[in-house]
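Researcher: Here's the sequence for the chain we discussed earlier.
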Amino acid sequence: MLISHNKLVRRYIGYNLLLLLFLFHSSIFAQQDENIFPLGIDEEVESDLKEFREQKRLFQRDRGRENEFLQIIPYIKNELFPSCEVNMVENNWIFTEAFRFSVHGFDVAILQKLKNRNIDILIPIEEITAPPKLANRVAISDVIVRGIVNDIVNDIQPQDGYRASIIIKVLDTYKGSVHSDSIIIRRLSGYDSNGLDVIISHDFMPDIGEEYILFLSNGMYQYFIEYPHIFAGEVNRQDADEYSDRYYVMSRIPYKIIDTRVFSDVIEIPISLDSLIYEIRQLVNVLEDVKRRR
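Model: Thanks. This is the structure I predict for it:
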């Protein structure tokens, strides 16, 4: 079955415009009814957001985690917006974060235990344009590795609609396990079937030879096989099962390593590489301990 996403892409752009307007004019939005949004696109955007939310619910239902997922939603709402109603944009943020946590094995009990240990992995909506906190990056990743970009291959795969594969030589693994010392990250940016170079602004765009600490998710990749990313090309899911456990997508932006210096996006962070690795390992140990004791 082939799936076209031109309509969804147009509406996704509309949603992101709303999100930007919310972030820069939150004081104005706070005085408006939650169903009143500018530009006359609120009904279309809200319809699509409801569709995306239903897809996430069905994905977790089919994996036996629907109850855990739905219970996380009010928990996050109460933590991030304890004394107010939420509008459409805020509600979608809560839903999306709840989905990410549930995909990676979290439930309300685990989130509460982490809070009791003063480990905050929730991201307020006003912070989404900033680099995510380390605890959040660690939490919503299946696999965390240190690796070098060995190759970037234009590689259209019909099962996922992604256009390129980033080949990573794994130097060390801090969370999860990998089948070999070479893993593949799927990327939306790349040449499509017509030879057009498609560039997605938020994609991971490394150069060959660069070194990173990477936060990866196979769980989210499996979701995008079943419900293709809105920026994906045409998708034929017939052979999806063959690929479901072979590839990863980025779960959060990586740390770039230059000698012993560490960069988050383009900003050097004031921590040594050894200290960062130590913090990652400590967080992984805490997360695994909390999950074992639930």
